[in-house]
Each structure stands twice: as C-alpha cells, then as structure tokens.
Amino acid sequence: MSKQAKKPKKELTIEQKINRRNFISFASFTVLAGGAYGGWRWLYKSPEEAAGGITGGTRKPLRKALNKTELFFRRVFSDNHLVKTYPKEMAVKGARVNSDIGIEAKKKFDPATWKLNVVKKGGEVLQVSLQEIMALPKTEIVYDFKCVEGWDEIQHWAGVKFIDFIKHFKLDEYTKMEYVGMETPDKAYYVGIDMPSAIHPQTLLAYEMSDKPLQLQHGAPLRLIIPVKYGIKNLKRIGTITFSNTRPRDYWAEEGYDYYSGL
Ligand SMILES: Nc1nc2c(c(=O)[nH]1)N[C@H]1C(S)=C(S)[C@@H](COP(=O)(O)O)O[C@H]1N2
Ligand SMILES: [Mo]
C-alpha cells in the first residue's frame, strides 16, 4: 500500500471554477456528440439485410436488436398467455373491412369449390372441405382486433382452433417445426407464423363472424384469426398451409414490418 500523502488542493477562484465547469460541460458534450455521430456512422455503414430476403432491408445490427426483443416477447407471451376476451354484447355487429390483397372483388373465386390445401412432407397435399372443418368442435372468441394502422375493434369470431384441426387431421408431428406458412389461393397475400403462436389456444381457422357465415370481404370461406398478432397476420381466404423450419415468406415483413408482429 502506498502511503503517498495527498497533494494539498489549490483554492480556485470563482472565475476559475466557472471556466472549469464550462470546459467540462463542453468537453462532455463533444465526447457525447462524437459518440452519437460515431454510432450513427457505424449503423449507417453497417451492411443492410440482403435484398429479397424474408425481412425487409433494415441495418443488420438493428435486425439483431429486433430479433432479441422478439425472443423476449415470445418467451413472455407465447407460453399460453391468453389475450383478453370480452362479452359478446360488446362486439361490433359488422366488423370493419380493411384490405383485400389476394381477395379482390373483381377476382374470380368460387367458394363452393374451394378446398384447404395442407402441404405435407414429401409434397403430398391434404385437401379439406369447409364441411369437414365445420364438423369439428366450434370455438368462439370475442377480443380486441388490432391493426397496425392504428385502429382496433372488439369482434366476435368462430371457427375451429388451429390446434384442434392439427390433431383431428393427425398433423401433430408438424407442430415440432418452427413455422407455419399460409397463402391466399392466388398466392398474392401470404404470412409466416411462428409455431407457438399458431398452436396458441386462441388461434382459429374462422368461418363465422358475429354469428353469421363469414363474408367474402372478411376472408370467406376460411380465414386465420390469431389474437396474439396484429391484423396483418390474420390472413383472409386461406388457400394453402405449409410447415417449415425456416421463415415462410411474409407479405408485410417483405415491406419492412416486424416479422413477428405480436401484440
Ligand atoms: N388476403 C388478405 N388477408 C388480409 C389482408 C389482405 O389485404 N389480404 N389484410 C390484413 C390486414 S392489414 C388486416 S387489418 C385484416 C383486416 O381484416 P378485416 O378486413 O376482416 O377487418 O386482414 C388481414 N388479412
Ligand atoms: Mo391491418
């Protein structure tokens, strides 16, 4: 241990004190500003995500941070955390119609001949009719549907739980995969869903809204209702379902929206 005596402090005059304080503030400002600028340059120069990828071009370090937050929220919310539900009386009678990519009214589509296609391993396709789906146990939900554009509505939906559908058609082994992909019959709108959200007990393949058959503009014959996600993931008019361990393509993620899009 050194026993060096402390140097006696020289008394500073008021002016010296002020000058010193000014200098320190200015120096700190310069260092902080420099740091911020440096950080920005670093981010700016960092590589962008590859074009044509699953997620839209953000800077790689930002995507890293986004993925970390996503993991955090997944752990907290996907483990059977239930979305708040409401009494039926609180639901709107006719829900708002938002967007119609892949289900445009001018597009030829015959709900009577529609079948749901489930692509299995080896490319084999399971075809399921609406009648078969409606014969499965029906589950209803009344919850606050949220669109990223900034509106929300308490809506009443009914259909079969995705997990019940999986079990009935003996697709259990596919729940070990990481993602579910869903596309409209014309493949113009498509979403990728992480498996925990897909098999969440409130996730439905819906064919009724407000106790009435689903209307075409809301996604008839069958749409996805996934309360743990924002509206963009609630694909209307499901044509094909796939399973994979890599992220399926996702319409809005390609435009830069959060791939996970969870609440
Ligand atoms: N096929 C298809 N599904 C879709 C969309 C779309 O444009 N096409 N828009 C999504 C968005 S952004 C929202 S908010 C909801 C709106 O559903 P609604 O029209 O039944 O209210 O559907 C989602 N599913
Ligand atoms: Mo939306």
Give an overview in words:
By secondary structure, the protein is α+β, with helices and mostly antiparallel strands. The chain has a domain at 69-95 and 108-255: Sulfite Oxidase, Chain A, domain 2, CATH 3.90.420. It is 25% helix and 21% strand. The protein contains five helices and ten strands. It has helices spanning 14-45, 60-77, 130-134, 162-168, 195-198; strands at 116-119, 125-128, 139-147, 151-161, 179-183, 190-194, 204-209, 212-213, 223-225, 240-244. It has a five-stranded mixed beta sheet with strand order 2-1-10-5-6. Strands 3, 4, 7, 8 and 9 form a five-stranded antiparallel beta sheet that branches. Strand 3 and strand 4 form a beta hairpin. It is elongated. It starts with 13 loop residues before the first helix and ends in a 19-residue tail after the last strand. The model has no long low-confidence stretch (mean pLDDT 88). Bound molecules: the ligand Nc1nc2c(c(=O)[nH]1)N[C@H]1C(S)=C(S)[C@@H](COP(=O)(O)O)O[C@H]1N2 and molybdenum atom. Ligand MTE is lined by residues 95-103, 147, 184, 189, 218, 231-232, 234-237. Residues 98, 147-149, 231-232 line the site of molybdenum atom.
